[in-house]
Amino acid sequence: MKIVITYNKPGKNALEDELDILDEVALVSACLKELGHEVIKLPMTLNLEKAFLFLKNEKPDLIFNLVESLQNYGAIVFFPPALFDILQIPYTGNPTVPMFFTAGKTITKQALFNAGLPVTASYKPSEVADLPNGKYILKPLWEEGSLGLDEASVFEITGLDNINLNSFANDLYFIEPYIDGREFNVSLLAINSEPVVLAVAEILFVDYPSDKPKVLGYRAKWNEESFEFKNTVRTYDLGKNGNQIHKLLSDISLKC
Question: 190: domain range?
Answer without folding.
Answer: 183-255
